[in-house]
Amino acid sequence: MHGFTDAETDKEHVVLTMGDINDPAPLLARIHSECLTGDGLFSLRCDCGPQLQAAMHKIGVAGRGVIFYLRQEGRGIGLLNKIKAYHLQDQGADTVEANEQLGFGADMRDYSILKPMLEHLNIKALKLLTNNPRKVKALQDMGINVVERIPHQTGRNPHNAKYLETKAGKLGHLFNSEDDE
């Protein structure tokens, strides 16, 4: 476990590593934004907890890899605003509409903290577990070689179907219903 502090936001982030990360072969990796409700409280409203668990399992099976756990709750709007967004969703708004009604963008996450993390760990190439093309682009813009985007679809249930449709339709996440684990 490696800890990092973002000097601009004073947020603390964690990188979990397994196996020999100094091997130049691309590392299996997951960039995961904090989700207390999904990761810790097992909410069915999102797919975050199952995605984190599946990433840990895949890295364990591979024997080496890295998870960047970023403190960007609620796509960067924070826990209390996320709770407000949940209330708006209960009234019919989708996740993007709820964020926008609160005065935020659809996705406020910033991946710039990854650069010092990757440099510190001397990571140059990744096989990225993600459905989010913004994460791939952010890494490529930092000069990281994303040799493969591995679909990472898990956790679909009747309570998060609209949420997942919104992620695909409004945020550009790449889903294939046949890829569900």
From TrEMBL:
This is GTP cyclohydrolase-2. GTP binds at residues 30-34, 51, 73-75, 95, 130, 135. It comes from Cellvibrio fibrivorans. Residues 1-151 form the GTP cyclohydrolase II domain. Binds 1 zinc ion per subunit. It is an enzyme of class 3 (hydrolase). GO terms for molecular function: GTP cyclohydrolase II activity. It comes from the Bacteria. Its EC number is 3.5.4.25. The keyword Metal-binding applies. Pathway: Cofactor biosynthesis; riboflavin biosynthesis; 5-amino-6-(D-ribitylamino)uracil from GTP: step 1/4. Catalyzes the conversion of GTP to 2,5-diamino-6-ribosylamino-4(3H)-pyrimidinone 5'-phosphate (DARP), formate and pyrophosphate. The keyword Nucleotide-binding applies. Pfam families: GTP_cyclohydro2. Belongs to the GTP cyclohydrolase II family. It catalyses: GTP + 4 H2O = 2,5-diamino-6-hydroxy-4-(5-phosphoribosylamino)-pyrimidine + formate + 2 phosphate + 3 H(+). The active site is at residues 107, 109. Keywords: GTP-binding, Hydrolase, Metal-binding, Nucleotide-binding, Riboflavin biosynthesis, Zinc. InterPro entries: GTP_cyclohydro_II (IPR032677), RibA (IPR000926), RibA-like_sf (IPR036144). NCBIfam families: PRK00393.1, ribA. Zn(2+) binds at residues 35, 46, 48. Its cofactor is Zn(2+).
